[in-house]
Amino acid sequence: METAELTRTGLNPEGFAVFLARRAGEPAWMTEQRTIAWDLFQNLPMPTRKDEEWRRVDLRSIRFDDIAPFAPVVGARSDRPEVLQARVDLGPHSDGLLIQRNSEDIHSELSAGLRAKGVIWCGFDEAVRRHEDIVRTYYGTVRPPAGGKFTALHYAFQSGGAFLYVPPGVQIDVPLRNLVFADAPGFGLFPHTLIVLDRGARLTYFEERVASRPAPGARQNLVSSVAEIHMKDGAQIRFMSLQEYDPQTYNFSSEKAVGGRDASVAWLTAELGGKLNKGFIDCDLTGSGGRCELLGLYFINGRQQSDIVTLLTHKAPHTEGNILYKGVCDDFARSGFRGRIVVQHAANQTQSFLADHTMLLSDKSRSDSVPTLEIEANDVVCKHAATVGEISEEELFYLRSRGIPEALAKKMIILGFYEEVLKGVPAAALQERVRRALQAKFDMRDHDTPDIEGGDMEWRTNS
Fold it and tell me: What total number of domains does the chain contain?
């Protein structure tokens, strides 16, 4: 099926039929999965403000018919990362690098040392062809298609993404890098990340999503991504994601990690771009001794909106958890955070903490936070906290009294606000990458177009 025909269709029955025809060579079970997911998407109602986890999000402006289900590479195709170096900060990737441009994988590399140890690292579509048995075993088991309307949409149109398997006892301390770069107009992206860590494996992983800025009046873009992380006993992962989509992108993500006995996950997300970011991030600690740290930061301005739902479930005793999110809202930006910690009946001797802190730079910006604890066990230590405030006048006065100009003093306070979260970034080079992205966001915020399409996004209060 010609790619041009796909770009003329939308996320509708015609587009799905054309997309399926293009994927005719994939395994029958995958086609069946897509068909089931498409039926789910059509039958599930669109989330509304009557749904608790969606009550602060307005989805009525999404035009599904105008969004292509597959975005081809624009212009000359190349598998050399140097082609993107001038447009994307590729950073350190000495052990492994994947690059997806729009909906197509264009580059894959893995060090000979890791290949010799049995590590499998490739684009997701290649994994379906070459490692079908292991992909089929784990695909859709942590985040099934029935998880929600946009999750079902993902499984119907999934293309691209990353697959990683780390054998027992193998340690990968230098970050593996997965970059998704989009520069097609009116694109729909559906990358799937599937990571399987065998017993005692250890991994550092960096995932980056970038889209070029559109011209005024450009078409809408939509991303619906899924990440599934399986950690067997004693496995450890340090996972970081950075998102810098353009201001016309509706970004939906659904991510979950499941860890066995003594498994550990440190997960940090940084959301800087996009028109709307709606994310679900979950972790299940199913074995004793498990640990989970969910860290997040965002910086939004103009009419950007960020709405995050986190869930940390303790299912076994002697587990530890920590959720910490920090965000900054400027102009007319809106943020929402709904964090939950669930301690099940069997999870005694659990310690778990939840905190969300937001800084407002404008009296037109808004933030709503709903931290929740659900405790069924009787021998636990759990706490939660949430704050929303402005720049500290005391801190600002202190810096200005030392001769620092007001604009620079505010920048120092804002960027310093994130340091507690940035300490959780797994490598110094990645810390600097995020700091540079935050500084660029701060410096560009006065030049961003608040709302390319015009019109205000409606907002609902807590009442």
Answer: 1
